[in-house]
Amino acid sequence: MTSTTTFEKHRESATTRSAVVLSINGQRHELELDNRTTLLDTLREHLKLTGSKKGCDLGQCGACTVYINGERVNACLTLAIMHQDDEITTIEGVGDVEHMDPMQQAFIDNDAFQCGYCTPGQICSARATLDEIRAGIPSHVTKELNGPIEISDEEIRERMSGNLCRCGAYANILKAINQVAKDQVAKERS
Amino acid sequence: MKAFSYERIDDAAQAAARAFEVPGAKFIAGGTNLLDLMKHEIEVPLHLIDITQTGLDDITETDEGGVRIGALVSNTALAANERIRRDYPVLSRALFSGASTQLRNKASTGGNLLQRTRCPYFYDTAMPCNKREPGAGCAALDEGADTRQLGVIGTSEHCIATHPSDMAVALRVLDAEVETINPQGQTRRLTLDEFYRLPGDTPDVENVLEPGEIITGVVLPAPVGGRQQYYKVRDRASYAFALVSVALIETDDGKGRVALGGVAHKPWRRDEADAELGNGAKAVMTKLLDGARPTDENAYKLTLAERTLAALLAKE
Fold first, then answer.
1. Minimum distance, in Å, between the CA of residue B37 and any CA atom of chain A
2. How far is CA A42 from the centre of its chain?
3. Are the C-beta atoms of residues B307 and B280 closer than 8 Å to each other?
4. Pairing mode of beta strands B25-28, A87-89
5. Do B46 and A11 touch (CB under 8 A)?
6. I want to staple A93 with a disulfide (CB 3.0 to 4.6 A). Which of A65, A89, A158, B6 is the partner?
7. Topology classification of domain A17-94
8. Residues of chain B found within 8 Å of residue A59, distances taken between Cβ atoms
9. What transmembrane ranges does the database entry give (chain A) (predicted)?
10. Model-level pTM greater than 0.95?
């Protein structure tokens, strides 16, 4: 086994920073980062995109949920330097006060938060939840793996389990998601 | 987190050779478990080799009528794959029962196999752990330790940790094989039973991978059909590790296979227990859990395993 001293020498001598170009909400950012920097810290500390929140920093709470190439992920559990060429979308890219995304509006209409800290992650996950159901991706509670998936409270709760809310706004988060789901169905029919 | 150097290598054989050559190197793909452990400084790699662009992200048919899953296929992509859902439903079910969607979108097939235990004493760096620091001792074996979630069989006097993967339990019941390439460019295939080690007196060595050897994929044999189920019992309804999980395949000839998760250092299956399937859950568990050495706190897992299997067998 290599001795601790050799290890520490490597840490001191090796290059522990890297250059990366990130595409976030359609904008290019050329960065030079400590290799350790997570995508979340890059967004918040380097680019001042503070919509994505740091809760547990261990992938357990979902407050940092963002989209990478259209899929929702925990930004705290991925290194920024591994995302050259990826399309990253944060809550800032989902909508703003002038151009509200339907899910953002539904959270307001349904009083789906109290302190609001988990809300950006909840909204990113909520939108993805409906997209994933529409794409036919089953979940743990889906009865038939190969059948159609019905949007139900049970499906939404299961698919939202990676987003915690310590204020306990779950009942109204569920209402907000159901409202958007209903509006989407109505829109598709018209 | 400790500082590390980083490079991306886009060929699996070259990545293996490089990992062999650089001291303290580790591969990174999804990173969902590795970065968590690096933040706790339980894993302290000197060098990370990013293998995400090695192209091992396909699910393809094999000449034998089975399926080859690239090591980089995400847990979501694997679980949602039409062929897997149709022909290997126990695998889809196991995957969907694990983690959250955010994690499944990122976690890879190879990384899922290599994830580390969630034993609370492995994670608590203030406590001794033979897995984290060989020879340090095992806090889980101290009097009054919290062992409720820990292993009941195949354990040793040095470690009673469990393997946390649901996917691996389904792969074990499906007779899947892990495919690897080593730094010399040689490939081999290992059954899950061959791949994972029991803790013995070296609980830090969790599998038989040699230095630099990299997982390139997982091969499923031709579908066995039958009724396939995965039942995970846990403390909350979603996003929690198994206390006990049961993967069951009942084939049309009245035979079948059973594997357990949450009870041992590896997915737990025995041929002699499979042979008892026609005789009910008790007969199966008598063979499957023979030699178990539970603690007072986790002896409930023996009863729970039997009842979980009974529930699956009784299902209409």
1. 9
2. 14
3. no
4. unpaired
5. yes
6. A89
7. Ubiquitin-like (UB roll) (3.10.20)
8. 32, 36, 100, 102-103
9. none
10. yes
Average pLDDT, consecutive stretches of 10 residues, N- to C-terminus, chain B (316 residues): 97 98 97 98 97 98 98 98 98 98 98 98 98 98 96 98 98 98 98 98 98 98 97 97 98 92 98 97 98 98 98 94
The answer, for A57 touching chain B at a CB cutoff of 8 Å, is yes
Enumerate the H helices of chain B as residue ranges: 12-21, 34-39, 75-80, 82-87, 89-96, 101-106, 109-114, 120-123, 167-173, 192-195, 271-274, 281-288, 300-314
> Domain A102-189 class?
mainly alpha
Collapsing DSSP to helix, strand or coil, B110 comes out as helix
Report the residue from A81, A137, A138 with minimal CB separation from B6: A81
Query: Which tokens go with B304?
Result: 């729970």
- At B8 the three-state DSSP class reads strand
Q: Is A52 on the interface with B (CB under 8 A)?
A: no
The domain segmentation of chain A, as residue ranges, is 17-94, 102-189
Three-state DSSP at B128 gives coil
- What are the φ and ψ backbone dihedral angles of A88, each rounded to 5 degrees? -105, 135
> Given an 8 Å threshold on Cβ–Cβ distance, is A162 in contact with B102?
yes
